[in-house]
Specification:
Layout: H1 2-15, H2 27-35, H3 40-75
């Protein structure tokens, strides 16, 4: 369980360094980037950054919870 959560945590940290400009290289999104007047990359950057901020906060909270649980189990 802890290893699984750690894998999720590390993948979220790696995803925060994801370059959002590569989103427009995907074919369906590239068509949207080409034909729309709105900058899709800016919207994608905002959504991805907000998602990763939220998931990072929750992963930190879960790691703190796990560490306190382990300390409690070893003490008691």
């Amino acid at each position: 369980m802890t290893i699984f959560i750690f894998i999720i945590y590390t993948t979220h940290v790696e995803l925060t360094y994801y370059d959002v400009t590569h989103v427009c290289t995907l074919k369906p999104i590239a068509l949207l980037c080409e034909f729309s007047s709105i900058h899709i990359s800016e919207i994608a950057y905002f959504i991805i950054s907000m998602y990763h901020h939220v998931t990072r906060i929750f992963s930190y909270m879960y790691l703190i919870y796990l560490s306190w649980l382990i300390i409690f189990l070893f003490v008691v």
